[in-house]
Every structure is written in structure tokens, then in C-alpha cells.
Specification:
This protein has 145 residues and is mostly helical. 61% of the residues lie in helices and 10% in strands. It contains 4 helices and 4 strands, in the order ββαβααβα. The protein has helices at 14-42, 56-72, 80-88, 108-140; strands at residues 4-7, 10-13, 52-54, 91-93.
């Protein structure tokens, strides 16, 4: 018998649950990376500030692996504290392309480009979740309409 899991505000089973896990985790990680990039841009003039970034693919892989391990053991979802711990180890300091006298490693051109790219990919992940929700609503709606 297949087990149901509560995913993205609804009950899902099998492949649908895994797909929602992927899209939901991708959205959360994109938001987390966007916040890091915004922090880098905001601290561009702060002496000694070290620019950080999130290794998105490794963070997503780890988050999905943690979920599948906990789901198979019957523990359910990764808690917020566990998720924070799992992504904290994937935060990396950027290596500056050019040294700065005040020790700041923010490259504004790179940060702006990464910010714009991540914003687009965040919107793609959000649209994927919205499409799944629309499909679910359509499938569960009254067939007589």
C-alpha cells in the first residue's frame, strides 16, 4: 500500500509527492540564495565584508536526500531547524576576482548578474508549483462543471 504525505498544502502520493518535494525545496532554496545575494549587494561598501553564496545544486540534493531518508524511515518531513543546519554547511565565501583594499569581496557586477538569474529561476520554480496546484484543483473539481 502506498503511503500518502502532506505536501505543499495537500495530500500526495508517490511521484506527485516527490515532484512537489523537488519544486518546494527548489523554491525555498532559491529564496534563501536570493536573500544571500541581496545581503552581498547591501554590504558592497562595508569594509571587510565577505560575499557569500549558496551551492544551490548541492543544497537541493542534500535537502531531497534528507527528506527521502526521513520519509522512508517514517519520520515525515525535515524540520525547519534540520533544514537550516543542512544548508548552513553549503554556504560558501566567494573568491574575489580582484582584491580590494578594504577587504570587501563583493563584486557588484557578478552579484547583480547572479541576483537577476536567481530571480528568474525563482519565478520558474514558483510557476511550476502553481501549475501543479492548478492541475490538482482541476483533477479534484466537480466533473459536471
Amino acid at each position: 500500500m502506498e503511503t500518502l504525505r502532506f505536501v505543499a498544502g495537500r495530500w500526495a502520493a508517490g511521484a506527485a509527492a516527490k515532484d512537489d518535494d523537488f519544486n518546494g525545496q527548489a523554491l525555498i532554496l532559491r529564496a534563501k540564495r536570493q536573500a544571500m545575494l541581496a545581503s552581498n549587494i547591501a554590504n558592497a561598501d562595508t569594509p571587510g565584508y565577505k560575499a557569500t553564496d549558496l551551492n544551490f545544486s548541492a543544497a537541493l540534493r542534500r535537502a531531497l536526500d534528507n527528506q527521502s531518508a526521513q520519509t522512508s524511515s517514517g519520520e515525515g518531513y525535515v524540520g525547519a531547524a534540520d533544514f537550516q543546519l543542512s544548508t548552513a554547511s553549503l554556504v560558501q565565501y566567494r573568491q574575489p576576482a580582484q582584491s580590494n583594499l578594504d577587504g570587501n569581496t563583493v563584486d557588484m557586477d557578478l552579484e547583480r548578474a547572479e541576483f537577476a538569474q536567481n530571480a528568474i529561476l525563482y519565478q520558474v520554480a514558483l510557476n511550476a508549483l502553481n501549475d501543479e496546484l492548478k492541475e490538482f484543483k482541476l483533477a479534484s473539481s466537480d466533473p459536471r462543471r
